[in-house]
Design brief:
Elements: E1 21-30, E2 39-49, H1 65-72, E3 80-85, E4 88-89, H2 94-100, H3 109-112, H4 116-126, H5 131-150
Antiparallel strand pairs: 1-2, 1-3, 3-4
Length: 153
């Protein structure tokens, strides 16, 4: 079960700068058998990650790290609480949030066999993006950027 030390002050409803990630009192339970109580994987977790910072999620096996990442990326539904990514509510703006983030599991041997471009192409298809179009647009953006920085014609 994930445990996060919470600051003494509550998470503000309207921070001065929208954080990159806001996790507010999130809980996730899994039903493993009909006659057994649900297993609590994440219990009332709250955290705020400011823009421009890099953080890691550490913990023992079974502590809820992967569940938290799956919740934040929209691969699992919340039982309680809220998640915002760059100010977008995960429940109400799920498609927009999914376009902003991507997650690649290190557990899936399938992904290890793909090149970086193949992984990106796979993720683009998962999110309903046309790989050829997005690849062409990104190539044009990179070419324009290189030309502007290096005065290329």
């Amino acid at each position: 079960m994930a445990t996060v030390h919470r600051p003494a002050d509550p998470i503000p409803d309207h921070p001065t700068e929208t954080p990159a990630l806001l996790v507010d009192h999130v809980t996730k339970r899994f039903v493993v058998a009909r006659r057994r109580p649900p297993v609590v994987a994440i219990d009332d977790v709250s955290l705020v990650l400011p823009r421009g910072e890099i953080h890691g999620v550490l913990g023992a096996n079974g502590s809820g790290k992967s569940t938290l990442i799956r919740l934040v990326s929209g691969l699992l539904t919340l039982d309680a609480g809220r998640v915002e990514v760059f100010g977008l509510d995960l429940v109400h703006d799920e498609a927009r949030v999914k376009r902003l983030i991507n997650r690649v599991s290190v557990d899936a041997a399938f992904f290890k066999k793909l090149s970086p471009l193949e992984n990106l192409s796979f993720a683009a298809r998962l999110y309903g993006l046309d790989h050829a179009r997005s690849h062409d647009e990104r190539s044009e953006e990179h070419t324009s950027e290189l030309q502007s920085h290096h005065d290329l014609v």
